[in-house]
């Protein structure tokens, strides 16, 4: 965590209220550090239904057009629940969070997710974030999935276990030849940290990531976690939506 943005900035914001990252309105005392209440309510809201119960993609005429069912053999997790759809203003907000290094957005994202999914989160024993590679973490100064998982873990009173690591890109480049190789070996990007094995044994684990697209990353991480023989669910901030031909 960057010392200034993580520790000093919140104090400065208390003394000199900042402006909302989205609408520019001056923040009031009750607002989050970087997002006004109006924007947090307007932008951070759950995807409208009906959604697929397996992967959270919106259903089309009762069918899921981009499901995880049948895509993986085997599928190592039970379901993915996504908070919102990866489109419009919510997509912009996640872009700002991830690429403009706005670590302070982790809190409003977590709070709004907990407002809707508190009972779902509480049904699991431990929370495990999908990690970034060491290079990505250095470059962005934080790991986006880990930060909002930390906030959700504080609110729900459940432990965060950083049980999965991601290999460096140098390591990954040495072990892969081409793109199709990359798809078939997604699980080799990650490794299970042995020291957490005891803590995940027989537990209900909830894996957290920011965006759910094909589910390859979630499946790769869930595969590693099955070493603990527990149940595995996935929660993501957003679900990418299959584009219709006319929208391309
Ligand atoms: Zn605003
Ligand atoms: Zn589906």
Number of domains: 2
Radius of gyration: 18 Å
Strand tally is 6
Level-2 CATH architecture of the largest domain: 3-Layer(aba) Sandwich
Number of helices: 10
Rough outline: globular
Strand content: 5-15%
CATH topology of the largest domain: Rossmann fold
Termini Cα gap: 38 Å
What hetero molecules are in the model? zinc ion
Fraction in helix: 25-40%
Protein architecture, described:
Helix 4 packs across helix 6. Helix 10 links the parallel strand 5 (204-212) and strand 6. By secondary structure, the chain is of the alpha/beta class. A 4-stranded parallel β-sheet has the order 1-6-5-2, sandwiched between helices. It has 2 domains: 1-43, no CATH class; 48-247, Rossmann fold. It has helices spanning 3-15, 37-43, 88-99, 106-122, 134-140, 144-156, 169-175, 179-184, 197-200, 216-225; strands at residues 80-85, 126-129, 164-166, 190-192, 204-212, 231-239. The model has no long low-confidence stretch (mean pLDDT 86). It contains 10 helices and 6 strands. One zinc ion binds at residues 20, 22-23, 25, 36, 38-39. One zinc ion binds next to loops.
Q: What is the strand and helix layout of this fold?
A:
Layout lengths: L2 H13 L21 H7 L36 E6 L2 H12 L6 H17 L3 E4 L4 H7 L3 H13 L7 E3 L2 H7 L3 H6 L5 E3 L4 H4 L3 E9 L3 H10 L5 E9 L9
Parallel strand pairs: 1-6, 2-5, 5-6
Antiparallel strand pairs: 3-4
Helix pairs in contact: 4-6
The structure holds zinc ion (2 copies).
């Amino acid at each position: 965590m960057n010392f200034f943005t993580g520790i000093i900035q919140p104090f400065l914001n208390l003394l000199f209220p900042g402006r909302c990252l989205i609408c520019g309105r001056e923040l009031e005392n009750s607002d989050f550090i970087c997002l006004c209440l109006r924007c947090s309510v307007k932008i951070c809201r759950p995807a409208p239904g009906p959604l697929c119960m397996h992967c959270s993609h919106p259903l089309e005429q009762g069918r899921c057009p981009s499901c995880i069912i049948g895509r993986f053999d085997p599928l190592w997790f039970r379901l993915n629940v996504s908070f919102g759809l990866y489109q419009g203003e919510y997509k912009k907000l996640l872009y700002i969070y991830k690429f403009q290094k706005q670590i302070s957005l982790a809190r409003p994202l977590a709070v709004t997710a907990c407002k809707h999914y508190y009972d779902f989160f509480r049904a699991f024993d431990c929370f495990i974030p999908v990690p970034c590679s060491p290079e990505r973490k250095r470059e962005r100064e934080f790991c986006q999935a880990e930060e909002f998982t930390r906030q959700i873990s504080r609110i729900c009173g459940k432990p965060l276990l950083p049980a999965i690591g991601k290999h460096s890109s140098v390591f990954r480049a040495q072990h892969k030849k081409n793109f199709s190789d990359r798809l078939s070996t997604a699980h080799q990007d990650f490794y299970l940290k042995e020291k957490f094995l005891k803590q995940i044994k027989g537990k209900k684990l909830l894996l957290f990531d920011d965006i759910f697209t094909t589910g390859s990353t979630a499946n790769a991480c869930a595969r590693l976690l099955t070493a603990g023989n527990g149940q595995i669910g996935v929660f993501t901030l957003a679900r990418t939506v299959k584009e219709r031909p006319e929208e391309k």
